Amino acid sequence: MQGADAAAVADALDSGDPLPGTGGFAGDVDGTLVRDVLGRYPLFVERDVAEEGRLGHDQWGHDPAALEDPRSFPAGHVRDGDGTRRRFTLPSPDPFPDRETAVEAVQAAVETSVDAVDTDGLAIAFSGGVDSALLAARLDAPLYVAGFPDSHDVEAARSAADLLGTDVRVAELTHDAIERAVPEIARATGRVNAMDVQIALPLYLAAERVAADGFDRLALGQGADELFGGYAKVAKAPEDPRVDADTVRGAQREVVATLPDQLERDVLALRAAGVEPVTPLLHDRVVGAALRLDGDLLVDGETRKVALRAAARESLPDEIADRDKKAAQYGSLAARELDRLARQAGYKRRMDNHVTKYIEALIE
């Protein structure tokens, strides 16, 4: 069992509580396979095994490379002698009664979860935004950012580190590093589509530098954008065609449902680079608080992650608490430069999926 004590997972299975106070889990409990409701730890089974009966130890695992034909085991599900079925579903709690109560609850959940992180062997992935800055302000661990020298993320991380009175180590991206890393990421994650590889690139290359410097755990602010309303498509609901929901709160739940697929990719990429991810903002207590936020505490006008920013002011200067950030693949310039490499190799933008085709060529 990864992520939580087997006894705690057994209790959750008995009760059906989807948020039993853990940071996620996946594995076997007394012959029952289980993966938590947000899929915070990867779990795979052989694709062609019969749906009836329990799985043998050679028919499932946490690393898809260890199986002949793996498929992802769905988040929130169990597999026992009766087959595979859903056991956990995210709750739909009523919103907090008022803004003050909501911000206090978010602050308590975030600070408790971050402060509980063991800093032994730990480094922090630091973009200079509010999510990673909360980790940096409350944990005694070195900061790392990945990006090309002129990238937004490198500049933002350095300026935020100055405001926090510390420094940040830069894992400088190069074309050679990208060309080397792309096949490694594709093999580790089993994915070759451009978006997945672009997202994983700065994480993987930062993690490589972290591992080379002697650290084996990497803390990240993952989950904050999904939980607290950090995406433009959530802010613009229901007008944005990228979400089906007709409210901001509904759009929040819609993007939270994408976490299992995203986290699987990121965990596999980081492990392949030599570190274990640590994600305190995805602890059950933080998830539970975020699901109780009303729409105006997620997005208010042009401001996203309203409640999280308000809660962060106890730990961060206003200049950092109020900052917007770019997605890592864009802020690091990894996506731009991977596209440039694809075009230089003859995969022009007029071709369908030209970057994905370039990635497939690198693997071959």
From TrEMBL:
Record region (Disordered): 1-28, 60-97
Annotated Low complexity bias: 1-13
Native source organism of the sequence: Haloarcula taiwanensis
Record Gene3D superfamilies: HUPs (3.40.50.620)
Signal peptide (from-to): none
Gene Ontology MF terms in the entry: asparagine synthase (glutamine-hydrolyzing) activity; ATP binding
Top-level taxon: Archaea
Protein name: Asparagine synthase
One cellular component (GO) term of this entry: cytosol
Pfam families: Asn_synthase
Domain Asparagine synthetase: 117-238, 249-345
Keyword field: ATP-binding, Nucleotide-binding
Gene Ontology terms: biological process: asparagine biosynthetic process
